[in-house]
Design a protein that fits this description.
The protein has 434 residues and is an alpha+beta fold. It contains 20 helices and nine strands. Helix 2 packs parallel to helix 4, helix 2 packs parallel to helix 5 and helix 17 packs antiparallel against helix 18. The two termini are 30 Å apart. This is ABC transporter substrate-binding protein.
């Protein structure tokens, strides 16, 4: 599985799967082995099984072989056995391993796939195992492994991160007095600009081609969940945001097909020249270079409006490991700044999950990138300090339902309040953490 696909579309395990796993293990975090700090000061020994997710290939295998050899050289009595699982069916494989008691010591899980294991007490609380680790990692990445409903602790170390930036076609915008310096930095500013440009261009230039999805609420500072894990975003702030989208649609700033099942996506519409704005990662510059090279010349990247999204991959330690000191030491070694910088330099377009090191990566890869991609990478890296991940409880089925209801509101077939009330009720009725 490609890294970009994995970060953007990490599978969410069904509640039934989580309950089945909980049943296999006796259920609940109380089943985890004795907690407390783990002493890493002594000599390490024994075997550590390390599992990655579709990373054994020509590009990454030499990196991991060198990484493991270096760790074993520092700890001569430790042997690291590297296991790599295929991209497809990974979440099912994790459930199978957990249910049969064969979880590797160290494994790669995004926050959502980690949830059933956290619920069943099969992952180590890393904040408790090694107090003080938090300051070494990206704040949003650390938080993504620390907000499991009803469970205290942190259950993953941020490993590599992704996010999106805003892409603007200044070639279409400059005739209407919009320069790079004028580009909005807020969601409201973007929607206001969209209405103005649509009016002045008689609908020829559109800047809105996606629905007001939950990640837009998050970006705009709308509270998504309360302390008990219930969805609560049917607020006046969210209503105003959905209504602003409806106003933009009515003003001709949004293509009608963006509300239908035939919608190809905002990035595709940008590539086809139908809209003058899209969101996308730094790698979108490559799509522009191959599919619309003339458009690349007029495109610029700026930070996403509001709070940028965060896509997280991390390393986790099994609470069932019989060699926790070596397992924890190895997980920390893989995710330390030096090794994360080396990995994300190889995996160009991604950022290290550490608090520092992004500048090193940007400098290392800039020479081999198209200037537009290098510029977008710097924009993304600069924004990661304040980026936030979506709650793991938000599922693909919830997204589908929300899209249907919000399309009705944007078209004016229902009110924004009614749509949000229905979405919140559906989401709370289908929470995977209950």
């Amino acid at each position: 599985m490609k890294l970009s696909t994995r970060l953007g579309k990490a599978a969410v395990l069904a509640a039934a799967g989580a309950l089945a796993l909980s049943g296999c293990t006796g259920g609940g975090v109380e089943d985890a082995s004795e907690g407390g700090p783990i002493d890493l000061s002594g000599d390490l020994s024994g075997t550590v099984k390390f599992q990655t997710w579709s990373l054994k290939n020509e590009k990454f295998t030499p990196y991991f072989e060198d990484l493991i050899a270096a760790f074993e050289a520092e700890h001569p009595d430790v042997t690291v056995e590297w296991i790599d699982q295929p991209g497809e069916g990974y979440s099912d494989k994790i459930l199978s391993q957990a249910g049969s008691g064969t979880l590797p010591d160290v494994l790669n899980l995004p926050p959502d796939i980690a949830f059933p294991l956290v619920q069943a007490g099969q992952l180590l609380d890393l904040a408790e195992a090694h107090p003080g680790l938090e300051e070494q990692y990206n704040a949003g990445g650390w938080d993504a492994y620390s907000r499991y409903t009803g469970v205290e602790g942190t259950y993953g170390l941020p490993w590599y991160l992704g996010s999106d930036v805003s892409w603007w076609d200044l070639g279409k915008l400059e005739p209407y007095g919009v320069t790079q310096a004028d580009l909005p930095t807020t969601v409201e500013g973007w929607l206001d600009l969209a209405e103005r440009v649509a009016a002045e261009s008689d609908g020829e230039v559109m800047l809105v081609s996606s629905m007001p999805t939950v990640d837009v609420f998050l970006a705009n500072g709308v509270e998504l969940m309360d302390e008990d894990g219930a969805f609560v975003f049917n607020t006046p702030e969210a209503v105003a945001l959905v209504q602003a989208y409806a106003d933009a649609y009515a003003a001709g700033a949004m293509p009608a097909e963006a509300l239908t099942g035939s919608y190809a996506g905002n990035a595709q519409m940008y590539l086809q020249g139908q809209v003058a704005y899209t969101s996308g990662g730094p790698g979108f510059a490559g799509d522009l270079a191959t599919q619309a090279p003339s458009l690349l010349e007029t495109s610029v990247a700026t930070p996403r409006a509001g709070v940028p999204p965060l896509y997280v991959q991390g390393l986790n330690v099994a609470s069932t490991s019989e060699n926790k000191p070596a397992a924890l030491a190895f997980a920390e070694y893989v995710t330390n700044q030096e090794n994360q910088v080396a990995f994300t330099t190889l995996a160009a377009g991604f950022a290290p999950g550490t608090a520092e090191g992004a500048d090193e990566v940007a400098a290392a890869v800039a020479a081999d990138m198209d200037p537009a991609q290098a510029a977008a990478l710097n924009v993304m890296f600069d924004a990661l300090g304040g980026a936030q991940a979506m709650p793991f409880q938000w599922t693909g089925a919830m997204t589908d339902y929300a899209t249907q209801q919000l399309a009705l509101a944007v078209r004016g077939d229902t009110t924004a309040q009614e749509a949000l009330d229905d979405i919140v009720a559906y989401a709370n009725d289908n929470r995977i953490d209950q």
